[in-house]
Amino acid sequence: MPAKTSLDPDHRTLYGASLQPPEGYAFDAAVATTFSLDFETALAVPVSLALFAAESREEILDHPLALLEGAERMAGRVLIFADNGHIQIQSRPHSRLCSLLEKIIVEVAAPKGGAFHPKMWALRFRSMSDDKPICVRLLVMSRNLTRDRSWDVALTLDGIVAKRPQATNRPLADFIRRLPQLTVADLPSGATELASRLAEDIRRANWILPEPFDRVSFAVNGFGGTPWRPEPGARLGIISPFCDEDALAMLAERAGTQAPLLIGRSDELGRLSRELLNRFSVAVLDEAAAAEDGEELEAGTLQGLHAKIFVMERGWDTEITVGSGNATRPALITGRNVELFSTLNGRRSQVGSIEEIFGDKGFGRLTRPFVPEELTNEDEAKRDAQARLDEARREICTGGLKLVCRRCSSEDEAANLWEVTVQPIRPMHLAGVEELYVWPITRGETHQKHALENLRRGDPVDLGSMPLIDLTRFLACHIVDRETGVSLLFATGLVLEGLPIGRNAAILRSIIHNKDAFFRYLRLLLAELGDPFAAALAAQKDEKHGGWRSSGEDSPLLEEMVRAFCSRDGRLDAIERLVERLEEAETGSESPIPPDFHALWQTFRLALRAKSQAQVQE
């Protein structure tokens, strides 16, 4: 008997905690992939990587200064590749900080025309004392970068970068290296180089395997060749929220003489034939396990089953495969979807059998038998409408639309308004669409514009005039189906021409709008590298002490600046960039930088220049 059941539902981890560096290491770079994402979750990730972890996304979102600094620090060091058109939004205006994600979020398209569906993080950490080798971490998941609370699964592997490439890692490294080639719009500067360097590190990683497994392998579907699918074995267990007839029939043929076990979702299983279901032992997630402790979830938050797992008994071994692929034709047969899988192998006496993994002591205690009569099939007309809307979404995201902004010609130069238009390169079909509304995500649906007829004619769409701070390349789109009235709301990132260089500085100034915010942000910059507690304290509002006091203790801010000067770790360089950008921001309001700090900073500037000259001479 295994010491502990594999895939035990009581063994859980926080998403943010999985991104934290090992002890003695600091974050260096990362590449992530996801099918869908929402802006709030994407904003919280850089904070978790750069500053401090938190119990929930909402706890991080309460600190706009931390969000600002996290996005600033991670630009050029983090890339998040997502399926085009699957950025989830709401109709309200989104934070202007979301525009700082323009250099982090990269929308891509699957090369075979299916969905870009992998969920992965590849992270590199560097030793803080320079006496340890580079460390990498891999997360292979079923979880998207969204706020949903579904049952998901993740494999976390830490490894050390060795000198020689490892053959096992080649599919994974090739996948990461190919990602920039899939982009549908502008690629951030340096993205190809970042992905290439991280791919090379992953190629040479020696992984520390979790007990009791002794082997790991990786597979990627969607780039040609024979798609990965489970090899034939004696017994098969499947967890797949989405499934179809062709894929399940194929899997049943590979499962030996015993009926394979299938855990799915009632709405998907209800669409399958009785003959096919009779070939499986079928269960669904019990309703009591869908939400924990009766908690109320935010509107639109997904729950239920979302994990994808294939367990095969072969010989004396048990193989557990986790990843992004469902038991569907695009994922496992045609290979149209881009999917990522990781397989762990170990002795069945240690890993457990399918009965043990999916039984009452394992994941099975969260399930109940599926009753085919309990659910009627979903309205096929609604499914057809969703397919039409998906096709329209694909046309919008890959049709070459761009945003063009020009400064308004106005006698009131202080207004600093900009005209923005959506420019098509050709007329668009948008078949089956009744209405199409668009607006910048920073403005909200109250500023929506009718776009359907203009885009069908190939004419520009005028989004109106807006202040500099609202300029963004993320465009919200609301599509309505003609036949059914079913609608779809999403955002996509377009090429943005004419963006003035002062936009990011204006966003910075809107967050650091007074002396209190300036000093709190200063303390955030001065927080010791690798000290998440100090960073968390610095991000908090400090009502007790004045601006020249530390939020965590009574030591003057001047002493912290002197320590940063002596450590030569770049924290004062960050302050220099902050001061310069606040000065360049065009605004008629009072500067948040106090005059006495300006005078002090001039002294530090002279000292920094003298230090730089001395280092050059050395």
Count of alpha/pi helices: 21
Gyration radius over CA: 26 Å
Reported for the largest beta sheet, the result is: 8 strands, mixed
Portion in beta strands: 15-25%
Query: Looking at the structure, what is the overall shape?
Result: globular
Structural class: alpha+beta
Low-confidence stretches: 292-301, 542-555
CA distance, first residue to last residue: 64 Å
Mean pLDDT: 86
Q: Fraction of residues in helices?
A: 25-40%
Question: What's the count of strands?
Answer: 25
Task: For the structure shown, list the relevant keywords.
single chain; 618 residues; alpha+beta; 8-stranded mixed beta sheet; 7-stranded mixed beta sheet; 21 helices
Characterise the protein shown here:
By secondary structure, this protein is α+β, with helices and mostly antiparallel strands. Helices cover 31% and strands 23% of the residues. It contains 21 helices and 25 strands. The strands form 5 sheets. An 8-stranded mixed sheet has the order 10-16-15-14-11-12-13-17. A 7-stranded mixed sheet has the order 5-3-1-6-7-8-9, sandwiched between helices. A hairpin with a 2-residue loop joins strand 14 and strand 15 (317-323). The chain starts with 14 loop residues before the first helix and ends with a helix. The model is unreliable at 292-301 and 542-555 (pLDDT under 50).
SSE diagram, text form:
Blueprint lengths: L14 H4 L6 E10 L2 E2 H12 L6 H5 L2 H11 L3 E6 L3 E2 L16 E4 L11 E8 L7 E7 L12 E8 L8 H9 L12 H13 L1 E4 L6 E7 L13 E5 L5 H9 L7 E4 L1 H4 L4 H4 L3 E5 L1 H4 L18 E6 L2 E7 L5 H4 L6 E9 H4 L2 H4 L9 E3 L10 H19 L3 E6 L9 E7 L9 E8 L8 E2 L1 H6 L3 E7 L6 E8 L5 E7 L1 E3 L5 H9 L3 H12 L5 H8 L17 H11 L3 H14 L10 H23 L1
Parallel strand pairs: 1-3, 2-4, 3-5, 11-12, 12-13, 18-25
Antiparallel strand pairs: 1-6, 6-7, 7-8, 8-9, 10-16, 11-14, 13-17, 14-15, 15-16, 18-19, 19-22, 20-21, 20-23, 23-24
